[in-house]
Amino acid sequence: MSRLFGSVRARATLAATLVVAVALVAAGAAVLLSLRSNLLGEAGTQAERSARDVATELAVGTPYADLSLDVDDRPVQVVDEDGTLVAASDDLERITGTGVETVEPRPAASPDGTGDAGDTDDADDDDDAGEPLEAGEIGERTTVSDGSATIDGDTEDYRFAAVPVKTEDRGRLTVYAGAPLSAEHGAVNTALTVMLIGFPVLLAVVGWVTWLVTRRALRPVEGIRREMAAITASEDLARRVPVPGTHDEVARLASTTNETLAALQTSVERQRRFVADASHELRSPIASLRTQLEVAAAHPELLDLDGAVEDTVRLQHLAADLLLLARLDAGERPADARVDLAALAREEAGGRAGVSVREDAGAAGGVTVAGSRGQLGRVLANLLDNAQRHARSAVEVSVRRDGDLAVVGVADDGEGMPEADRERIFERFVRLDAARSRDDGGAGLGLAIARDVAVRHGGTLTVHDAPAGGALFELRLPAA
């Protein structure tokens, strides 16, 4: 069960079914209430019409015995101002809801024996009770109530309407007439039955349709999952997940997954090349050092001590470069110290032949950045080493402010950098001059380290044409 509801498809189906169920219950309740209200209103209108018909007859002086009280077999009562039942429908056996539960009329005896009450000299005195009426006038206000009545053995629920009327000879009377609520009960019960039967069927259809739709919508996701599982099992990062042609969120997920796989493949291939190149670079000095030591062991007089020391120093520098690259790849954050780039440039240029430093005289307070002094010094040293290898006679270091950026430029007067190679030179173990010896050119890590350090400090390192015709390397960092 937990596995079933752990599925997005199952949860989506359940959520859609619950939402539709709540909506159906709310809509059904509203429909039932509206239907009942309308039918009760219609019953009240019918009851009022019947009561006013009888009140009209009373207003014109119709005797009680001649009143139309048995139309449509509806219960009718006529009550005087003392609450005495003076007229009622035939066959009325029981009634509730009108306030007068008697069903046998007891009209006051009149002098002529008609059963009608005599004239009342002070007929207007009853105007204080209820709505003031003139003789022969029917009241505008109608009181509505619910009750039940038994007529000729049949008991039903009714809505009663009470209409007051003022007569010339019998004073103020109240007519109660009822309209049956059987239609209202029947309609409401029918609607409720239809809802109780139809709603579960509708919910089942909604759940089934949602299940099918979500299965179709999530089918590409399952394809992506299977392909990712296959890539993980095979370790073949050249494979890609299928991208559906729906141009929706799933398609964008597949595209992003493929982009991630491509970046991962590039990173892994770069790491493999890095390990292979590092192994190759380490093999040469190690082999040379071993050869010298083996020769020295057999013939101590032939020991090339200077060569052994040179190979050892080269190994030391290469190991330091590899360690720094590993720390940069691991995401090591640089220190947050204040570094004066002008002072750092003078320090790194000191003792180097043909290297000059030019500072921006307009930069008040110097040109400082936040970062690691050691790593930034390594960047300048690598740039100066590269410039001196390619310069004909001179290298110039410039330090200036450019808005919110600190800019350090290292320019030489050499042959310059071909535009096609201006990005490739920042790759690891890249040497553009294949004829250049390893001893002169290094391992090809200096510019790669310089750019990685610049990026870690939130800056950039690019190469352009120098004014003197050589190459100009520009290091741009956020100024502190």
Question: How is this structure best described in words?
Answer:
The structure is a single chain. With 480 residues, the chain is an alpha+beta fold. It is built from nine helices and 13 strands. The chain has helices at residues 2-5, 8-59, 182-234, 249-298, 305-329, 341-349, 373-390, 438-441, 446-456; strands at 76-80, 85-88, 92-96, 143-151, 154-166, 172-180, 337-340, 355-359, 368-371, 395-402, 405-412, 460-465, 471-478. The chain has a six-stranded antiparallel sheet with strand order 2-1-6-5-4-3. Strands 8-10-11-13-12 form a five-stranded mixed sheet. It has a two-stranded antiparallel ribbon with strand order 7-9. Helix 2 (8-59) runs antiparallel to helix 3, helix 5 (305-329) packs parallel to helix 9 (446-456) and helix 6 crosses helix 7. The longest helix is centred in the middle third of the chain and has 53 residues, at 182-234. It is rod-shaped. The protein starts with a helix and ends with a strand.
Gyration radius from CA atoms, angstroms: 52 Å
Query: Mean pLDDT score, rounded?
Result: 84
Alpha-beta content class: alpha+beta
The ordered string of helix (H) and strand (E) elements is: HHEEEEEEHHHEHEEHEEHHEE
Strand content: 15-25%
- Poorly predicted ranges: 109-128, 434-439
Total beta strands = 13
